[in-house]
Amino acid sequence: MLACRARGLVSRRAKHSLLRWQSLVLPAPSPSTHIVTSWKLQQARGKKTTSSVRLEDLPQGPIKTDGPLPLSKPEEDDGPAYPTVVLQARQNMQKFENCVLLTRVGGFYELYFGQAEEYGPMLNLKVAQKKTSAGPVPMAGFPFFQLDRFLKTLVLDLNCYVAIAEEFPNDPGDKVKSNGLMHDRRVTRVITPGTLIDENFIDPYANNYVMAIHVNHHLEDGTSGSDGSDTRTSSDGIESGSLATSQASVTTPIGLAWIDISTGQFYTQSTTVASLGSILSRVGPREVVVDEVLQSKGDHQLLSVLAEDKHLITFAPHSELLPLSAWSPMLESDIPIQTVQGFTADEVNAGSLLLQYIRDRLQGLSMKLQPPLRHENMSVMTIDKSTMRSLEIKQTIRDGTFRGSLLHAIRRTVTKGGARLLNAWLSAPSTSLETIKTRQDLVEYFIERPDLRDEIVLLLRRSHDSQRLVQKFALGRGDPDDLIALANTIRATQDIVSLLEASKELSDTTSQTEIMSNPEEQHASGKGASCFTSLLSRINLSEPAKLASRITSAIDEEGLVQQHRNEDSEASQLVALAEDVVASEGTQSDASILPKATKKKKQPVSIRDHYSAAADDTTTFIMKPGASPGLRSLHAKLSSLLEEKSLLAEALRTRYGAASLTLRWTPNLGHVCHIKGTKDMRSITRDSENNNEAVTVVSSSRSTRTFHAPEWTALGRRIHQTRFEVGVEEQRLFAELRALVVSNLVKLRRNASVLDELDVAASFARLASEHGWTRPILHDTSSPIVTSSASTSPSPPQTRHIIIGGRHPTVEAGLREQGRSFTKNDCLLATITNSTSSQSQSQPQNQHGTLHLITGPNMAGKSTYLRQNALITILSQIGSWVPASYASLPITDAVYSRVGSADNLFADQSTFMVEMLETASILRSATSRSFVIMDEIGRGTTPEDGVAVAFAALHHLITINKCRALFATHYHSLADLIEERRMHVNQGGAVECYCTDVEEDGAGGFVYVHKLRKGVNRQSHALKVARLANLPEAAITVAREILERTKGHESQGQDTSLHHDTHTRQQSAGTG
Predict the structure, then answer these.
(1) pTM, to two decimals
(2) Which CB contacts under 8 angstroms, 24+ apart, belong to 646-651?
(3) At what angle do helices 522-529 and 433-448 cross, to 10 degrees?
């Protein structure tokens, strides 16, 4: 697009266009940066409006007599006679009624009617009134190159669905059919929060999932009591039928399917409504699609779960079921037979709904997704929604920010794909011992070879986001820059493979030498050399290497750079025009919203500069001349024609005696000869009179003349035709390269996944080296362990949960920034469980206890201790080193956390109700392989009730769940109940008591002792925390008085109780 400055050299018609543009587009004062335009495009827009109204009036009669149209959409024919652009927009708005429609009109995207009035102010756009014969139409618009910026506001900030209507030039045949319309405007794509592909505002470090949920409506209807046969009322006034319905809806099986369109990842899962919240927390979909049948069931339990976490819900039609065989055209390869056999009917329905929805949003774009993976086939740890939140795994509780989370503390990845993979691993740690050890071996290899790790990281920095690059081509998108990025990634992959193979050969040689000198080290040496053998076996570079060579030999990178400079200059020119408009007719606040960066660029001074640039002989091409024989021939022809142009220009200068004569092309005047200066102008006039040859002047000013020369007109047309042919040939070659990328889709994706894993492993190695973390020893408790080589009988399954010198990864990082150190703590849980053999009866049982009861002062680190052990468990199973001096842990199937307090007013749930719901979920779900942390159970009610509930939860964890647990409390009487019930480890039970403390100096000062010790601390020291929080001294005094009085009553009560017990025993003895 060309643009010019409005400084004296703009014609009267151009000035009129500028005024029209200003009235339509100039926004109210705001930080916006979109006041730009093109006088050429404004001129074109004016023509469309004038001609289209007249043409639209002519065919109205015949169109109305067409049968189907009045039946389907009579309002379109009976509506006002709008101009063509407005009428097309109105029809698209009716077709996509739930979407915000952005219509491309020349160099702008425009909104009309009520959408302009509603969203214009939100986007800081001025809402103007477009005058039409049918009355004024509200409209607002912005320049086309700011589309991503406004899409971000609409899609991400406002959660809108946006339909993009592009304009397509009508060919001569279509013009006749449409009564002379120049352009057709149709929706090419519907953009929603869950269907982003390559937009600039998509989060590069996290997957962008859209999820579909299928509920079996017939099954629900069969159990809901809708026939009226089971609607009895209980004594509490609750309809038992509705209660049964609620319980049934919670346990109703549902099918899930989720896809990241930007990477092609596709997953399914079968679950229940009760587990949906935790799955949503793990997956984090940007949009949830459900059958539109549920829209009329506003009280459905599924919708309540989705609304609780404020998920964006889309109701979509699901009129037909797409069988698995119909999925194949949308997949890069066939679904494995084992996966097909494992699909449930609900999963197939969910996948069908999701694929149909995406296909509708993409409006015909082809897509190649990865074959779906069933989540049930993936051995991963369960982390529910409450645990994800309370452990601050992805974001903090207080602010919901990334900084301060566990992911922020451990992320050292250098690629975007690696960051997404780390995010996925942290959300679902592996429970496969083999997988975890493979990751650990690779991390250890990189720790031992820091030079190799640094070289790998440098090569990874040279790579690009291959997963999303490849998917862009699979969707029929992608540009030359993406091809260059893909070729660079393939080259980086080749270099990485060469490095790893050379390192492997060196390791093998070293291992052989060590084995010969010390045969006992054979196993240890071989493990290091083969840790990445499986990764290398997954990389296939034969065809991708050919693709990279083809791309680099075809794409002209220098031409691409120049093309980007031209595009940047074009945007700068448009902004420069806006600057002139604002300077002459705007205010200071209008000028403040202009883009600042573009002001520094060199700007054209007149419209002539734009025309000269349009006809410049140094037009950039994206393909090298030698990319194909046809392109080589066309470039040779173009070079010959340009040389002929130079000779013609010299000949015309000689003929007319005008040294300033240049050959140009303009959109309005065509191929013209241009001269400047009064001397050359007199020379042309004199030559014309002497030779009796009239020169047809088509444009003139005081110092310039523009006229036609037949020779230049003929030659110029040939040059333009040749350039057009070059462009066509380049498009053909580009389409070939796109097809080659798609044909290598599977190989490129697998290679990219290997790079992502290497990036995560290198980041773990760097993290461990920086902070002195250690490799955890993991063991699978599902299989028996042989205690010694001499014994053939296995010992009972063991849960060696040993952490020595454990630290909290995020708290330690925060203290390190302040120059402080973190107090290390150990965690030694049960050594033997599930023992039934008579031989094991004589062995010490539960030496350290399966549950630790932790007491101590406020602010002394109880919650931190609980969280750090849960986080160490999670880190150990993603393959990372852990912040501890030593760690030996069993494979954990789930981590549960009941920490912190919060209410849920939306669901009418108090703080205590939320606490009980989370506790109930843990007690019902935890297994003997789970790890549970509970903090302050029962504190939301009276002390008596709280103690009862807390002890009940503790008792259930020990006797029913039989899991490892850390239980922190301020109810010190729990320790007495444990002693009374003989549950302490010293009594053969499973509970051991630990506490933190406060160390006082006798002068009113104190320090917290964060180091745990055995025992029970019956002092919470709440007043010390109150003083630290700067509670008023008067309040502190009253609190101390009440506390002393309470303690006095308690001690007096204990003395009375002791005297009563003594007297009773004496009476009993006398009676006996």
Answers:
(1) 0.80
(2) 648/711, 648/712, 648/715
(3) 90
